[in-house]
Amino acid sequence: MKLYDFDGMFDKKLGDYIAKNAGKYTEAEWEDAIPKLYKQFGDIYIKSVGNTPNGFYAAMSDAELISALKTHLKQGVPVSEFLCGAIESRNAVGLLLPLLDGSADEREYAVNLIGADERAIKKYMAMITDPNADEDFKSRLADNIKQKADLAVDEAIENYGKGIEKEFMLEIMSRSSVPSEKIFTILINEFRSDTENIPMHASYLAAYGDARALEYLLDKIDEEDISFIEYKELLLAIESLGGCYDKPRDFSSDPYYKLIKEHGFSVTDEFKKMQ
Hints:
Radius of gyration: 25 Å
Oligomer: single chain
Number of strands: 0
Helix content: 55-70%
Low-confidence stretches: 266-275
């Protein structure tokens, strides 16, 4: 199979263009223009290829596109967005699934291209429990699983009970739409016992959406020794469950609160940026 480094071609063309227009644009203007130029490049005819980048991949079958991806990765030829875009435009999940058992690069690309398709959820659950897997990779798996949490919730409960990737399992359980006394009890117990991670567990209760959690959240937010960050996350969780808390609180001695105030930011606006 003939491979083309379309990203390399674009970089060369871009370099020439920048050199010819040196000094005409600011760095910020270049940063804004480059993605647009890259998109345009996908429809530019390249004589050595005999097609445009988009046209080159559009002419391939689904199987040929997956084969091209694997060959690019095996030979170390950069994978362009044009190839990824062509694969995403097809119904090629069935052909991508075997890549989840391939090399690290193949797994990375397969997860990005498959996304939260329900056909991959069971495999994702197996991959997320691999002790040798990278934490960032596991986080991406969890992000996809959460979108179809109901398909994985039973396994998440089982893994949690065995102490396997407990935090990921809690996150997945919290996104389930299936009412479960077992899940509610687990989430409440973790919220009450893990005092080092109050914001995280409050967000899980908010995501699960059981209003019975309000009494526990209100009890916690009323404690005098909670931090400003904990207070804000608890307040968000309370409000998301239909509750309210309007007792005046003084966080003037809180380190994070003071840091924001010292830099002249609005506390409310700055906290919103963290969400």
